[in-house]
Backbone:
DNA sequence: ATAGCTGCTTACTTAAGGGTAAGTACTTGT
DNA sequence: ACAAGTACTTACCCTTAAGTAAGCAGCTAT
C-alpha cells in the first residue's frame, strides 16, 4: 500500500479535520474518486471482483483492489474468498456498510435532483 | 484558477463517473479535503471571510478562497461584499446550499455514530 | 509615517492520487 | 503445449491537490 510520510503537514491537517469535523471523517471513508462508484455498485448486492471490474470499465485493477482493501480495512465491506481455481472472491457490505446505505441514498437523491435541475 | 488539461484520462474518467454515478456527482461538489469543513462551518449561519479563517485555523488563505469560489461557482454559496474599508464580505448558503443541509446532517450523524463506536 | 486590518492574488514547491503496463499462480479447456 | 480466466501485485511515471510565502489596495488608529 502507498506509504505515507507520518509527519507531513497534510497528514497532520487530515487528522485534525477528522477529529473536528464529522463530515470530513465520513469523506475520508467514502470520498475520493473511486470509492463512491464502488460503493454504489455494492448497494445492489454482493459482487465478485470481476463483476465490479466489468461494472466499472474505466477503473484499473490497481485502483479497484486498492480501494476494496481500504473499504475492508475501514470495516465497510467484507471479502469472502472460496478456495477454488479459478479463484472466486466476493465483496459485500458489512453491517457497518449497510448502515451507510441510507446516507448514500440521501446523497444520490440530492445528486439526481440537482442534476436534473441544471444539466450535468 | 488552476488550468486543467482538457483531454487527460483522469478528466475523461471524472466526466464519465459524474454522468454514471450520482454519488460521484455529489462528491465532486462537496468532497475533497476542505470543502466539507467549510460547508460544516457555514451550516451554523452566514460567516465572513475572516471568521471562516479563524474557525478553520489550519486552512491557508489560498485554499479557503479557492474553495469558496468553487462553491460559489457550483451555486452552493453566495458571496456578499459591502463596499466599505476595511472590506466586509460574507459567505452563506444559497437556496441550493440550504437543500444540502439535510444531506450534510445525515453524513455527520453517521460519522458521529461510527466515531463513537470504534474510536477515531 | 508606519503598522495593522481586511480580503484577496500570485509564483513556486511538495505531496498525494491516479494511470500504464507488465507479471504471478494455478487450473481447465483445446 | 498453449491460451484463457481469476484475483491479484509491482514498478514507474504523470497529473492534480495542497502547502509556503510573499505581495497588494485602501483606509484607520497610533
Residues:
Amino acid at each position: 500500500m502507498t506509504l505515507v510520510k507520518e509527519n507531513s503537514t497534510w497528514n497532520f491537517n487530515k487528522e485534525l479535520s477528522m477529529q473536528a469535523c464529522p463530515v470530513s471523517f465520513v469523506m475520508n471513508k467514502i470520498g475520493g474518486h473511486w470509492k463512491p462508484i464502488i460503493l454504489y455498485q455494492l448497494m445492489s448486492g454482493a459482487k465478485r471482483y470481476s463483476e465490479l471490474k466489468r461494472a466499472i470499465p474505466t477503473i484499473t485493477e490497481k485502483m479497484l483492489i486498492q480501494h476494496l482493501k481500504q473499504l475492508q480495512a475501514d470495516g465497510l465491506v467484507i471479502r469472502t474468498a472460496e478456495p477454488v481455481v479459478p479463484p472466486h472472491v466476493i465483496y459485500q457490505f458489512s453491517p457497518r456498510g449497510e448502515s451507510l446505505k441510507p446516507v448514500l441514498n440521501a446523497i444520490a437523491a440530492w445528486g439526481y435532483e440537482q442534476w436534473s435541475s441544471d444539466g450535468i
